[in-house]
Structure formats: C-alpha cells, structure tokens
Amino acid sequence: MRRLLVVNPLGTDYHDAETVELLAGQLPADVTVTVDSLRDGVPATAFLPLPSTSYNQLIGRVIAAEREGFDAVVIACASDPTLATVKPLVGIPVTAPMEAALHTAAALGGRLGIVAPRMRSGENEKQPQTANWVRELVQQYGMWHRVATIRSAAVVRPSDAEVERLFAEDPEKLRVLVRDGMAAAAAGPGLDHARAAVEHDEATVLFFACTTWGGLLGPVRDAVSVRVLDPVVDTVRFAALLAGAGLRRPSLTPPTLS
C-alpha cells in the first residue's frame, strides 16, 4: 500500500475536502491519500499566503510526513513552494505540480504549453501578477527544451471586502465563488491561450498552472486535440508513480531526540 500526503499550503482547510473529492476514483487501488493543510503559525487567508508566513511550516510538515510513514508528498501549489529546499531533507519523494507537469510532458515525448493565472493580490497574499514565476521555475529545473509557450490568463476575484466578509461568515460560499471565477477564466481567456499554444506554438501537452483549476478543465479538453494535465490529479498520479518505484533514500533530517 502506498500512502501519499497532499499538503495544501494554506492556513485554512477549506480546500481539503474539495481535493479529496477530486481525487476519488482517480488513483490505483493500492494508493491511499491524506489531504492536509497548514494551520499552526500560518495566517488564515483565502488565497495563497505570503512565503514569509508559511514556508517554514510547509517544510516542517513535509519532514513530519516522512516520520509518519508516508511514501511520498505532494505540495499542492503550482509555484512548487519550498520544493527544492525540502527534497534533500527527506528520504521520500516530494513533488509539486510544475515539476510533475514538466516531467510528465517529457515522458510523453512532447512540449508543454503552460497557462498561468493572473490575479490581483490582497493583503498578506501572494497572487501572481505575471507569468514570470513560471519562467523562473522552468529555468531552475533546466527544462526549457520541454516548453512550447508560457501564457497567462486573467482571473476575476471578488473585492477585498467581499473576500473578508465571506471568509469569516461563509467560507464555503467563498470557495465556490473563487472556483467559479477560475472556471470562467479557464473557459474564456484560458481556452484562447490553450488553442493558440496548440495551433501556433505546437504544444503537445497543456498544463494550467494552479491547483484551483483542478477538475475545471473539461471545456479545454473538449476544444483541443492534445493531453490536458489536471494540476491536482496528474500531480498525485506522478507522486504515486515515484512512491511505487521504491525511491526512498537515507534522510538527512536529524533524528528526533527523546
């Protein structure tokens, strides 16, 4: 049995049940998935918190996952936060959506067309204003030869006042509202970028670079002739593959002192 941990790097768990539902029935029978989020010391924000408030806790959660007996960890954010830092600290595979997408495209023998979200950032949040973070990650991974194009699609988000009110009073309604905005972006400007990536840039695989787009890419799949990776499901499948390959190695993390 392969045990995977998916970590939503937020100080709130309001996406966790959505992730569990999205993964249901999508993995081999011998794979079990636990979905968790960050709480202790991380501010509860509706969107991705500032790195300075979450990175230490995220690294600690991955290290703890190894001690808890998990066989692999997925960091569920397409900016792959802390991934390069934490990999050498544990003996189990750790991956995240951008890394998984690039290597999946390579395994399929293709070139990846990437569509990133572009969204206004609120207080204590880290939302992307451009797609340059994608370019920096691709450069870090040395994978430009597998990238056909990188584009960004604008996402409309609720006003700061509405986000604050709903996050306090009705987080489920806010979650649905945010998902609706992401779905509209995928089916609108995102779809235009997807078509252009395939028709003009010769992409043979598409990746929408935000885990909130997980489960929302049906309109894109219906409109293009190439593989469209789900940023949640296909990342966890990639992690399951790594977990099943017996890739454990000695951990560099010091043992816990009793």
Quick synopsis:
By secondary structure, the chain is an alpha/beta fold. It has 9 helices and 8 strands.
Structure keywords:
258 residues, alpha/beta, Rossmann fold, 41% helix, Asp/Glu/hydantoin_racemase, Aspartate/glutamate racemase family protein, Hydantoin_racemase-like
CATH level-3 fold name: Rossmann fold
Runs with pLDDT <50, length 5+? none
Instruction: Please write the string of helix (H) and strand (E) elements.
Output: EHEHEHEHEHEHHEHEH
- Give the quaternary arrangement of the chains: single chain
Shape: globular
Number of strands: 8
The main β sheet shows up as: 4 strands, parallel
| Proportion of residues in helical segments | 40-55%
Strand order of the largest sheet: 2-1-3-4
Whole-number count of domains: 1
Number of helices: 9
Alpha-carbon distance between the two ends: 29 Å
Mean pLDDT: 91
- At CATH level 2, the architecture is 3-Layer(aba) Sandwich
- Strand percent estimate: 15-25%
| CATH structural class | Alpha Beta
- Which class do the helix and strand fractions yield? alpha/beta
Please tell me how large the radius of gyration is: 18 Å
